[in-house]
Each structure stands twice: as structure tokens, then as C-alpha cells.
Amino acid sequence: MRKSFITAVAALCIAAAQAQNPKIDGIRREYAAMKADVADLQRAGAKGKWYLLTIDDNAYGRRYVGSDHYRARLNFYYELESESVIPILRFATEDVEADEQRIHREALYTDGQPVYIYEKDSDKDNVERTLFLDAGDPLQYTENNKPLTGNDATDAASVLLWQAENLMKRFEGSFGDSPEDTDLPEDDGGEVIPLGDE
């Protein structure tokens, strides 16, 4: 009787700890919906909800200096802003193979900022790291689903945030300009230069 009571209290404490932050719960729901959309996109094709930009770095496996093998595959799932056709990144995945090391990363974005970052790195004992954010402020950092705090957690969370921001920059760079640079130049009233046989 006592053992089952302790087990029940422990289960309630774990459930309460996981449900403590409604923002994290909302991010988890958004992430689950995005993963379902991505799975559906592969089935639905052109009728899917998102656009997909794929970068396959070193697709043919040429050796990098000092390395036997390197390949990276990035997938950027995005939508287009209806009025200006500016690409808006919603989700990114990155898979890296470097010799024996394997890294898998995912980042979920809302309003141009990362809100969820996941990483699993074979060189670090396959520890799964996650970071939840709200408007750039960390909400929770976990390793193998256990919330961590302190300097080590702060350092690891900073690296994850940097990775997500780096993915965003790579996405924006794929389109040539960041969204802030897409305005057309103003007409300065200068001479119109004819093109072709005009």
C-alpha cells in the first residue's frame, strides 16, 4: 500500500512538473503539429501545407581535408507571406555525418525566432538536448528530458540557440537577401535605360 502511494505521488509530481509551464506545453503542441505536417507533406506533395528547401552539402561524398567522410543535409520548411512573397522559416532540420559522428538537429520558429531546438550528437553519448524559448528568452533546457540549470546548462543552451540562429541565417542566405533587404530601390527620376530593341 505504502509503495503504491509513493509511486502515485511521484507520478503526480512528474506530471505536475512537466505541465508547470503552459508556454512549453503550447510549444510542444506546435512542434507535434509541425512534425505531422512534415510527414503529411511527403505524402501530399504539391498540395502540402509548406514549401521545402533542401540543401545537400557534399552529396557525392568527396573527402574533406583531415576527414574520411562528411555530408550534411538541411531541410527548411517555410511559408510565403501573402502580400510580399517573403519566405518565412517555420521549421528546419539538419543531419550531419562527419566520419563516425552523427548529429541530428531540429529547430521550430515562430515570428522569425526559434522557440524550440533539439539536438542529438553521437559524439556526446547520444544525449538528447532541447531548449524551449519565448521571444528569445530561455524557458527550459533539458538533457534526455531532464530539466537542467546552472552554468553548464546555460553554456549548452547558448550553443543550441546559436545553432538555430545559424540555420536561420543559412535559410535567409539561400534566397540572396534577408527580409529587411527586399524593398525595391526608389525611383530617383533619373534616365531610363532602354533594354533590347526599344
Description:
- With 198 residues, this protein is an alpha+beta fold.
- The protein has one domain.
- The chain has helices at residues 2-18, 22-44, 151-174, and strands at 51-57, 70-80, 87-98, 101-110, 113-121, 127-134, 137-143, 146-148.
Structural category:
alpha+beta
- The SSE order reads HHEEEEEEEEH
| Low-pLDDT stretches | 1-16
Strand-residue fraction? 25-35%
Q: Fraction of residues in helices? A: 25-40%
Q: Number of helix segments?
A: 3
Which strand order does the major sheet show? 1-2-3-4-5-6-7-8
What is the domain tally?
Answer: 1
* General form: globular
Give the N-terminus to C-terminus distance in angstroms.
93 Å
What radius of gyration results from the CA coordinates? 22 Å
Oligomer: single chain
Average pLDDT number = 81
Major pleated sheet: 8 strands, antiparallel
Total number of beta strands = 8
